[in-house]
Amino acid sequence: MGLILLEALGALLLLILIVWWTMFSGRKQGELPAPEDPTAEKLQDKSDPKP
């Protein structure tokens, strides 16, 4: 019984380590800004008709 609990604890710690690593191992300054897309503004203007 104790061995099963120890194995479950190890699996939980491994899961936490993997989640922590994927969340905080990115760039030091954060993500790069997305390039501006001029077509996105055109699509937004067409969907919002002006009176």
Provide the fold topology.
Blueprint (H helix, E strand, L loop, with lengths): L1 H23 L13 H10 L4
Summarize the structure.
This protein is mostly helical. The protein has two helices and no strands.
Task: Give an overview of the whole structure.
The chain has 51 residues and is mainly α. 65% of the residues lie in helices and 0% in strands. The chain is built from two helices and no strands. The protein is rod-shaped and about 60 Å long. The protein starts with a helix and ends with a helix.
Number of strands: 0
Instruction: State mean pLDDT (0 to 100 scale).
Output: 79
Distance between the termini: 73 Å
Largest sheet: none
Rounded to an integer in angstroms, the radius of gyration calculated over CA atoms is 23 Å
Question: Number of helical runs?
Answer: 2
Strand content: under 5%
* Helix/strand class: mainly alpha
Flag low-confidence runs. Answer: none
Shape: rod-shaped
Helicity level: 55-70%
Order of helices and strands: HH
Fill in the keyword field for this structure.
0% strand, 51 residues, mainly alpha
